[in-house]
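Work Package 3 (structural annotation) set out to generate three-dimensional models for the target panel prioritized at the project kickoff. During this period the team completed the workflow that converts sequence records into discrete structure tokens, so that structures can be stored uniformly alongside our sequence database. As a representative example, we reproduce one entry of 153 residues exactly as it appears in the project archive.
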Amino acid sequence: MRIDILTVVPSLLESPFAASIMQRAKDKGHVEIYIHNIRDYSTNKHKNVDDYQYGGGAGMVMSIEPIAACIEKLQGERGYDEIIYMTPDGKVLEQSDCTNFHCVKTSLFFAGTTKAWTSAFDNTILPRKFQLDPMCYLVENLLLQLLLMPLLD
């Protein structure tokens, strides 16, 4: 099983995936995990991935261009059985969903908190949205490993 993860904070995920159950699964060849830094696909000199909200409001949103560039590059290298976006707008992840993921050979996960998606982008690149808990969307990057660990049982 190959899992690609897109994030703006790869250092948060490198450590958990390099220890315990995940490391043993990698050592035995059951899983390959690749973490991609979305900032590497930013086109500005400061590697920013933030954008401003349309119509005002508090906070920042993530620019769609670096994410799209990263996903398109990875899709050009291999086909993915599943592309999953962990978002507060997604369906609450249930055990039955994890059971279905168990048969997937290649998957790409994007963990983030942005809501700045167009419907065209949703329908072409990110077909499935999940959330781990409606109250936990700010730590989706850390909770992503909770989704991946049951796949290795």
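The two ends are 12 Å apart (CA to CA).
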